């Protein structure tokens, strides 16, 4: 999200090189949303802060660090849909694509 692809790769390398095992839960940004930093409700109020990297489904992290295993992916749209007014429920399919998601990964040496 706030790191570019090379920075994410370096962080993952540091983790696998310094721990025997871990479970990692990451807030993942959809790759198409990276271009819309200036429209984000929080980022548009900040100077020089932008999204740098996003993913489709989390598998991109496993490609960056093949020692990781993805064990889950939660899209937050289902929970959000419950609180949306009826007039906005038509946008749920679009929200499913662009909404943030939680990626879950494990590493065992």
From TrEMBL:
It comes from the Bacteria. This is Uncharacterized protein. The lineage of its organism: Bacteria, Fusobacteriati, Fusobacteriota, Fusobacteriia, Fusobacteriales.
């Amino acid at each position: 999200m706030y790191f570019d692809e090379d920075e994410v790769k370096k962080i993952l390398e540091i983790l696998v090189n310094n721990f025997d095992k871990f479970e990692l839960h990451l807030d993942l940004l959809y790759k198409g949303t990276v271009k819309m930093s200036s429209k984000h409700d929080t980022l548009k109020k900040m100077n020089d802060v932008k999204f740098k990297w996003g993913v489709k489904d989390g598998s991109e992290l496993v490609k960056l660090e093949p020692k990781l295993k993805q064990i889950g992916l939660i899209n937050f749209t289902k929970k959000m849909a419950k609180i949306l007014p009826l007039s906005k429920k038509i946008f749920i399919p679009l929200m499913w694509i662009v909404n943030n998601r939680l990626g879950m990964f494990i590493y065992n040496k």
